[in-house]
Specification:
5-stranded mixed beta sheet, 16 helices, 45% helix, 3-stranded antiparallel beta sheet, 354 residues
Length: 354
């Protein structure tokens, strides 16, 4: 038997929805706010007023295939209650409801996206609203999550955007044929454009721009200024004028340093070498002796720091006695010699002499 109680071998009727004598009753005691004080008070005296409310009563209609029905009424008329009964969310107290086929309900604009649920539970809820079987959603859930994560990466650099091609292509491949089969030319054109825009990640920067941000503090502005200057061609130009060598710098600065100068760097975020990344972090957060040992391990020629940038906040917070803080306090070890850079340079640079 199907979920509505119809045997699968019975002939399919010509109607889509048949409602006869439908009634839904709510218990007002369960909808009112109850406190300990009111509970004791109600025990001593009889509650006044009605205890039940009929949201729907004696509702009957039949909707055949191909027909459309609009339910219009003021607040409290029972429109949402009727839709919830048709969707199978609540059970009626009287009457019968016979639905042939599947129901996909969208009761509010935010349906399927509940901020109190996790991301996975919201995906399951959206699938339930679309009438997708639970087993199908559970099987597709890992792929949906992977596609969303890859699509989210389009907000970052080119290498991460390439990772999102598979997820974005899957979205386009699944949704685009649904719009091509439409009869309305406008919906076909604009629907196809919207699918391509979503699958291609063009809407992600627009949506991210609507996320409210906290006002920037003076410290935030200082960190942003350091990040911009250290990543600029102007900031790296004095560094590029030094004799070629191997430079120890921050992980995030490695790729730009390799790209715009003739120097070499130990690692960068797109060099998936876990040991080198760990050594770079230990160089700045560890002791002076550890930094010296790593300098000998990689045959370093220079050490390059960008004071005040976002990366340095990690070093200061996690290692207040680490090598980066030591350099900022001008506690320069003997095996480092300062390199003269312009006074307005965002960098500090040292040459490894031993």
């Amino acid at each position: 038997m199907n979920p509505r109680g119809r045997r699968t071998e019975e002939p399919i009727p010509d109607y889509a929805i048949d409602v006869q004598g439908l009634g839904v009753r709510y218990n007002l005691r369960l909808t009112r706010q109850t406190t300990v004080r009111t509970s004791f008070r109600d025990l001593l005296k009889k509650r006044e007023g009605p205890t039940h409310f009929w949201a729907l009563r004696d509702v009957s209609f039949r909707l055949v295939h191909g027909e459309s029905l609009a339910v219009i009424g003021p607040n409290g008329a029972g429109k949402s209650t009727l839709l919830q009964v048709l969707a199978g969310i609540i059970q009626p107290n009287e009457g019968s409801v016979d639905v042939v086929g599947q129901i996909s309900s969208l009761l509010t604009l935010g349906a399927g996206f509940d901020q109190d649920l996790t991301g996975r539970d919201n995906i399951r809820l959206a699938g339930a609203f679309l009438g997708i079987p639970h087993k199908t959603m559970e099987a597709a859930l890992p792929g949906i999550v992977a596609s969303l994560l890859l699509l989210w990466q389009t907000r970052t650099g080119p290498a991460a955007q390439m990772m999102a091609v598979v997820g974005g292509g899957a979205i386009i491949w699944y949704l685009l044929p649904r719009f091509w089969g439409g009869k309305n030319f406008v919906s076909v054109v604009f629907g196809s454009f919207l699918v391509v825009a979503v699958g291609g990640g063009m809407l992600v920067p627009v949506l991210v721009g609507f996320i409210p941000e906290k006002p920037a503090t003076p410290r935030d502005k200082q960190i942003g200024k350091a990040n911009n200057l250290c990543g600029s061609m102007w900031g790296l130009r004095p560094v590029a004028m030094q004799p070629r060598g191997v430079i120890m710098t921050f992980v995030d600065l490695g790729p730009r340093l390799i790209t715009v100068t003739h120097h070499d760097s130990i690692t960068g975020p797109y060099h998936r070498n876990g040991q080198q990344i760990a050594d770079v972090m230990n160089f700045w957060r560890g002791s002076e002796a550890q930094a010296h040992a790593l300098a000998a391990k990689y045959h370093l020629n220079y050490v390059l720091s960008c004071p005040g940038s976002s990366t340095t906040t990690i070093f200061v917070a996690e290692a207040p006695k680490g090598f980066y803080v030591q350099l900022q306090r001008n506690q320069i070890p003997r095996w480092l010699t300062p390199v003269q850079l312009p006074k307005n340079s965002p960098y500090r640079m040292w040459k490894v002499t031993a």
